[in-house]
Design brief:
The chain is α+β, with helices and mostly antiparallel strands. The protein contains 23 helices and 13 strands. The protein has 2 domains: about 375 residues, no CATH class; about 140 residues, no CATH class.
């Protein structure tokens, strides 16, 4: 009988289990043993603890501008499972599957049927915007926060008119855990209120006020957390400046780019290429696609427009997207910020799908099937990119590739491989940190320029006495970028790089560097290497010439 008690709930939600298996299979190719990019700096600072007591220091010693102790603790726990990235990535995948299940559970608790919840959760499960969060170790920041965020809302959605003390206690635990994972969790009180209003289907002003007042402990904790973080950032103006551009233009631009990323199911790098090189055509196609989508939507939901516009769940989904992005709106429009906000699309679909019937339902089901096929295909393709990225990382960090680099106390590198297509390789100071993590030490590395890689990366080199020039044919994935991360330029210019000078010689039609030169000092200061698209090669000494 006990076995039946366990099996029955699993059987009742067997299609959810099938969805989780399919999701795992789609992401599986990216479950590789290699770290990348910012993984290394976080590994350096979070895997050295000898035991759990030492690891608990993460709760009292913030790391830089961040206070995300549960994320840091999760990295240390994964390190106990092995030295490769496999345990980390499998943990990321497990958290994504858990988020899918929790979102499904939240929808059930606010009155959505199992079939509708399954369809809506599928959009979240397969969405290609999530590949970076799952395959990039530091993408777990959003995953850990989303698990506790959704767990909190799952508990709240199960409250009756007056939740018991035990329910409040469990909810409070998840709420605090969310705050200890990422700053976006300060939006939880607002979403808790919205969930309660939708679940209880009472939108009278007195009820809204009473419900809001009942959440005062959570609002107070969020306020204390926010004030503490603002105090911490008080002396970090430069470090937090990138997140505090609250100009109307930046906010509107961010939300517009996020909306595009949520709705566009294909490669965003290729979309950017079209936007830059074929601006008028891109705008025309975008308008045509938007109008076509609007016409189809009007046809499908025209008989139910009034009901849909009155649906609390529909507005909850829209509110979800807007509110969960508020903490990030002063920064950049990074695609991984959309992990939790994208659940709003599922809520909106959960409201819209039941409002169709007959041939309109058939058409909607066909469109959903095509969308899910495109989502899963794109997610699989991006997982393959991360698989290739892993192989490249292992080769570039191998003993054979790095033994010469590691014999010097300091080196300079041009064309540092920044990423492979849409996956990261060695951003910022990651190559130096990677060498320290793998070999225990590293030379000091001055990065003169970066290069993002495609499948083929022909680099043309020309050399004179005190000048070396590099030329490529830029495309959506293959391009140079400066150490300040700038990719696009309005005109060629000159940029000092310590004892050297970087001169942009030629830009392509999109404003990307197609040729640049390094003006070298008369006497070598440090050994200079460049990446030729395949390996690191040392430039001959200028002194010897």
């Amino acid at each position: 009988m006990e076995n039946l008690a366990i099996i029955r709930p699993l059987f009742n939600h067997r299609y959810l289990l099938l969805l989780l298996l399919l999701t795992g299979a789609i992401f599986l190719k990216g479950m590789t043993p290699s770290f990348s990019s910012d993984d290394f700096v976080h590994l350096e600072n979070n895997i050295h603890f000898q035991n759990l007591a030492e690891a608990s220091e993460v709760f009292i010693k913030p790391y830089g501008r961040e206070y995300r102790p549960l994320v840091r603790l999760s990295l240390w726990l994964n390190h106990q499972m092995g030295d490769t990235a496999l345990a980390y990535k499998l943990s990321n995948l497990f958290m994504h599957l858990l988020c899918v299940a929790l979102l499904y559970g939240v929808m059930l608790r606010v009155g959505v049927t199992k079939t509708t919840a399954l369809i809506a959760a599928s959009l979240f499960a397969f969405h290609p915007i999530h590949t970076t969060s799952v395959h990039f170790i530091l993408g777990r920041t959003d995953l850990v926060a989303a698990v506790f965020y959704l767990a909190t809302l799952y508990c709240v959605a199960g409250w009756k008119q007056s939740p018991r003390l035990g329910q409040q206690a469990i909810t409070l635990v998840w709420f605090v855990a969310a705050l200890l994972s990422k700053e976006l969790s300060i939006t939880l009180p607002a979403m808790m209120l919205a969930i309660l209003l939708v679940q209880r289907k009472n939108f009278a002003l007195p009820h809204i006020v009473r419900t809001a007042l009942s959440l005062w402990p959570y609002a107070l904790l969020a306020l204390i957390y926010l004030l503490a973080r603002l105090y911490q950032w008080k002396s970090m103006d430069a470090a937090v400046a990138v997140y505090t551009d609250f100009s109307l233009r930046n906010i509107v631009t961010n939300y517009a780019e996020w909306a595009f990323a949520l709705l566009y199911p294909f490669d965003l790098y290729v979309a950017r290429e079209w936007q830059l090189l074929h601006t008028n055509l891109f705008i025309a196609l975008s308008i045509m696609a938007s109008l076509s989508a609007a016409v189809v939507a009007v046809y499908i939901w025209r008989p139910a427009t009034a009901r849909l516009m009155r649906s609390p769940l529909f507005w909850l989904g829209l509110f979800w997207i807007l509110v969960t992005l508020i903490p990030m709106m002063g920064g950049n429009s990074h695609r991984w910020y959309l992990y939790l906000p994208s659940a709003g699309l599922s809520l909106m679909m959960a409201a819209a799908w039941p409002e169709t019937s007959g041939h309109r339902r058939t058409l909607l089901n066909l469109l959903l099937a095509v969308t899910l096929l495109v989502y899963s295909g794109e997610t699989w393709r991006q997982s393959l990119i991360w698989h290739t990225q892993s192989q490249m990382t292992e080769r570039l960090l191998s003993e054979a590739e790095t033994i010469e680099l590691r014999q010097y106390p300091e080196i300079a590198i041009a064309n540092m491989p920044f990423g492979y297509q849409s996956a990261f390789l060695f951003t910022h100071s990651a190559f130096e940190e990677a060498l320290r993590v793998r070999y225990g030490s590293s030379p000091r590395i001055k990065v003169l320029s970066y290069m993002n890689l495609d499948v083929q990366n022909p680099v043309k080199l020309s050399r004179s006495a005190h000048e070396v020039s590099f030329t490529i044919s830029p495309n959506a994935f293959r391009y140079f970028r400066l150490p300040n991360q700038q990719i696009f330029f309005t005109k060629p210019d000159v940029y000092p790089q310590g004892d050297m000078t970087l001169r942009i010689d030629q830009l392509d039609a999109a404003g990307r560097i197609s040729a640049y030169s390094l003006l070298l000092p008369v006497n070598d200061v440090v050994p200079l290497y460049y990446f030729d698209g395949e390996r690191f090669i040392r430039l001959p000494s200028t002194t010897s010439e």
